[in-house]
Every structure is written in structure tokens, then in C-alpha cells.
Prior knowledge:
- The complex is a heterodimer.
- Chain A is of the alpha/beta class.
- Chain A has a single domain (about 5-255), classed as P-loop containing nucleotide triphosphate hydrolases (Rossmann fold).
- Helices cover about 35% and strands about 30% of the residues of chain A.
- In chain A, the strands form three sheets. A six-stranded mixed β-sheet of chain A has the order 6-7-8-3-9-10, with helices on both faces.
- In chain A, a hairpin with a 2-residue loop joins β1 (about 5-15) and β2 (about 15-25).
- In chain A, α4 crosses α5 (about 145-155).
- In chain A, about 45% of the residues are buried.
- Chain B is mostly helical.
- Chain B has one domain: ABC transporter involved in vitamin B12 uptake, BtuC (Orthogonal Bundle).
- Chain B has a two-stranded antiparallel sheet.
- The interface of A and B includes residues 74, 76, 107, 118 and 137 of A.
Amino acid sequence: MATIINCSNLVFSYNETSVLRGINLSIVPGKMLGILGANGAGKSTLLKILCGVLKPKSGEALFKDKELSKMDRREIAKGIAYIPQDPMFAFPFTVNEVVLMGRAPYIGSFEFEREKDREIAKRAMETVGIIHLKDRLISEVSAGERQLASIARGLVQEPEIMILDEPATYLDVKHRTEIMNILRELKEERGLSIIAATHDIFSSLFYFDEIMILKDGSILAEGKSDEVINSEILSSAYGIQVTVKKENGRVFVFPNQ
Amino acid sequence: MKQIEFGLFNMSTNRKFLISTVLLFVLWIIVALIAIFTGTYSIGPFEAFEAFSNSDELSKTIFFKIRIPRVLMATIAGGTLAITGAALQALFRNPLASPFTLGISGGASLGALLALKSGLAVGFLGFSMVSISAFIFSLLTMLFVYSVSKVRGGVVATGRLLLAGVVANFLYSAVIMFIQFFSTFTESLQTMRWVMGSLDIVGFDTVWKTLIFVIPGCLILLSLTKDMNLFGLGDDVALSLGVNVKRMEKKIYFATSLAAGAVISVTGPIGFVGLIIPHILRMVLGVDNRIILPCSFLLGATFLTAADTVSRTIISPVEIPVGIITASIGGIFFLWLLIKTKKEIIV
């Protein structure tokens, strides 16, 4: 099957600090890839390279066989949606306006959204269940609702892949589950590919098709969740002794101390 | 920021744009008409027509050489200060940015004054050297304030921003006052403009020379309004949505320095227009820059035309500098804003 994103030997550094040391990654349509790793392991940097926000120092990042750094930004925006960890909202736009901003790559400089764009935005808000918040200010809704608005904004870009940086970190269990369920639905019903960085070991077991664990900018392990989620790998990834217990198809993870 | 609930608020963007720009344009026409027929020397519409057809030289001179150019200058100056204020607020992602608070008006005033003092008040390829000098000083001031106030992760620290602007303004006004101190009495009166701001011009010449800078500056800003909206979601999201963030930032620097520098080189620092106008509009119309920028121009133009008419007539025949009117209205507004946003602004 054709790959959506295909990277080989990605290297990145901020000034002298090496952040990524040769990452290979590829994803096909309709798959969900989870990226785990301790803070500072290079997850966010990797995601930013995958959506064209950062350029790798060396190595290749391809979107549908085209080099990302050579593509037009608006073209990338029509294929890849990026949802950051802690989205900034410098001005109090309404939820509807924020979602409509996802249509930006389809609209010219002196243009406004057309009826069709508003329809697409409305459907996206229905999909993630925030249509009732349409006219509320983004600054007045909860963190979970803001995250859902960001996901809806990503959806109206009509992308082939959505890249999310810790989409559920700041959220409670209910919102976290809700967001992961929505992502899974999008994957299954629309064949959307999803790459998400996460600290949530539990949800990564249930939702992701593949898991990649980063440590100090290199791939520590990758594969199906039951292959990589074990005491040895997690202890190494997070630098703390953990025990992983599997009982009747359920998995328990807890630190030894 | 709380919005005033208004019928306009939740309308679709294109209808909101159309209705608000048309309404504000009509408002500007009304105020401008009142302004040209008001003043110490009373000229009504009928007299103006008479003056034009007959040869009442005094009325003709006052009306066409002073009154109309002055109203046009107030329009250009007010509009430019307000639209550049709105653009700077988008660029700094901070509602307290404006040509005045960032020290740009101080910089442009000093730039203009230095060009005048060093005998550079000559044309250069049809452009006034005074405006060019003001433009350069504006640009340098902005880059200074930006580099000082931008902290880690591209976030602008409000405290540093305002502090840098205040310090820049004080330094510039120290130099301006130093120059004034060594001036003769008449020269000193002329340079008062660079301290208080004034719209006192004669003839259309100044109007055209300012427009050469203002029109391209404002057009560049208007072409960036959509990108400014996306920029409000953070650098990374703006990039991922197709905005060339670095280029957009450079264009805003250039365009605001160009337009605001040219205006301030003629009028001197007229405070607070760039701060109040976008704020009032956001409270009524929401925060979409595609609406806020053009509407800021129109309302800024209307506001300064009205303020200037007041300054010309309130203790007629004595004329008080318009900067005093805008600064007192603006100062009170600024204080109110500071009190109201007490909990939101993290220094």
C-alpha cells in the first residue's frame, strides 16, 4: 500500500543539542501510530518535522513521495493537519471562527469563507460534538472543548493525515477517552491516518495500531502494542523501574518504587 | 476580553464586513462634512459654493488651502494610526501594542526632526527625506522593542513590551527636548509639533506626499489580514496552515513603519488612536482581522477628524493641539483597560 508519510534517517538538532539521531518512520492510510517516550526524547520535534513545520538537518521526510521541505506550504496544509500540545489562542475568536480557520489553505488573501466552507466546518463540529459551542468564545470554553475545536479545525483542512502532539495530556479521563474514541472513528470511517505523541500508556494499548518508543532521539522500540509495552522497554524509556502485568487481556503498569 | 452582545456579532464574516464598512464609511462622510464647514472662520456649504464660483479670496483660501487639506490629513493620519495599531496588536499578539505604546511615534518624530534640522528637508526622487528618515527610525524602534520583548518560544512578554516602548519614548523625547532647548523661540514653536502632535498643514502638497507612503503600507497590511488571524493560533499552527510566518512578520514591520512613519513625520506623535480604535471595534465586531483592520482605518479616520474639529473650535479662536484631545480621551481609556484586564495580563 502507498505510504502517506515516509521518513528515512531524520536528524535534527537545536544549536549544538542533538534532538533526533536518525529516525525512520512510515505510515499507510487508515493507521494510527502512537509515539511514546520521556519528556525531551524528541517526540514534539519529530512531529513538527512530519508536518513540515521544521526542516530536518539531514535525512528525508516525504509526504506521498514528495519531499516536504520542497512543497508549497498551502499544499501541505491541504494534506496534513497539525494539532499542537497546547494550542495558543491570542485573540478570543468564536469556536466557529477557529474551526473555519482550517479552510485557510483553500481561501485567497482578500477572500472570505463561502457557504461550502461554512457547511464543512459545521459538519466537523458535529463530528467532534461541539456544535452547541459554535458561537461561544474559544477563551470561555474548557480545555477539553478547546482541544476538540482544534481537532475540528484540523478536520476541515480535509487532510489525509492528522498529527497530534499529546492531544489528551491536560484532560480528564472522560475527555481523554472521548478524544481517543473520536480519533479512532475518524480512522475507521474515513481512512484518516493518525500520528500522535502521548504519555498515556493505557490508551496507547487500546487505540494505536503501532507504537514507536523514542529515547534520546533514537527509536528504542517499535511494533504492535503488546510487543513493545513491557517492563524492560518501559523501564529503559522512562528511566524508572516499572512493572507491566498482563492479566485476562488487561494490562497493568505501575512504578516499582 | 468580553464582547458587547450585539446583533452584528454572530453574523457570517462577509456580511459583517459589508455592513460594518458601509456604516463606518457613511459615518466618516458625515463627520468630514461637518468638519469642513466648522471652524473659527465660518463657511457654510452655500458660502463655499459662492467662494468657488465668485472670487471671495479669503473664504476660498481658507476652504481649499486649509480646511479641506486638514480634514484629509486627519482622515489619513487617524486611519493609518488605527490600522497600524491593529496590525501591531496582531503581530505582537498583544492588545496593548500600538505605534504610540511601542515608541514608534517617538522614533518617527525624532527621525523627522533630525532630517529637518540637518537641512535634509529636500525631496529625494519625489519622496520627502523627512518621511524616509521617520520611516527608518520607526523600523529601528520596532525591531528594538520586538527583540527586547520576545522571550522564549516566540511569546511576547507584555511587561517587557510596554517597558521597552516607554523607555524608547522617553529617550527620544529627551533628544527632542534637547534639540528644542537650543532652538530659537520661533524654531521652538515649530518643533512643538514633535512633542504634542498637530494636524496644522497648508495645501494639498503634504497630503499627496504622505499618501505615497500610506497607500502601499495599508494595502500590504490589508493583504495580510487572513494570515494575521492564523498567526494568533501560534507560529507552528500558522505554519502548518500555510502561512509563511517569517515573511509575514517582515511585511508587517515594513508596512507599519512605512505608513505610520510617513504620517508621524507630518503630524508628530498623536497618541492612543492606534490603541483605542481597534479595541472598541473588537468589542462590537469580534476579533477577525479581515474586519478589524479595514474598519479600524475608517473609524480612526472619523475619530481623529472629529477630535481635530473639537481642538480647532472648543476655545476658538485659540487652537489646542489635537494630541491633547486624543491623549486625554485615550489616557482615560487606557487606564480603564488596565483596570479591566487586571487579571488577564501577566507581566
